[in-house]
Amino acid sequence: MAALNLRFTDEELDALRKRAEAEGRSMQSFAHDAVIAAINEHNRLFNEAAAHVLRASEELNRRLA
């Protein structure tokens, strides 16, 4: 498995530590899941936008075909 080193300010690291502790999780697990959630949210937003464009241009695309 590949590794990634991230840099945080002291304040960011402290906030990360506190959030992870509040959830009873390791900082690594908490940070990993946060990154995966951000990736998934980006993909969801992209897919929503693509679906919207397809719906909005459906009639035009039908007439151009």
Overview of the structural elements:
The structure is a single chain. The protein has a domain at 27-65. Helix content is 77%, strand content 0%. The protein contains 3 helices and no strands. The model has no long low-confidence stretch (mean pLDDT 93). InterPro entries: Arc_DNA-bd_dom, Arc_rbn_hlx_hlx, Ribbon_hlx_hlx. Residues 4-29 form the Arc-like DNA binding domain.
Summarize the structure.
With 65 residues, this protein is mostly helical. The chain is 77% helix and 0% strand. The longest helix has 30 residues, at 27-56.
N-C termini distance? 47 Å
SS summary, helix count: 3
**Strand composition percent:** under 5%
What best-fitting shape do the alpha-carbon axes yield? elongated
The biggest sheet, with number of strands, parallel, antiparallel or mixed sense and barrel status, is: none
Question: What's the number of extended β-strand segments?
Answer: 0
Unreliable parts: none
Q: What's the rounded overall pLDDT mean?
A: 93
Order of helices and strands: HHH
Pairing-aware structural class of the strands and helices?
mainly alpha
Gyration radius, in Å: 20 Å
Helix content: over 70%
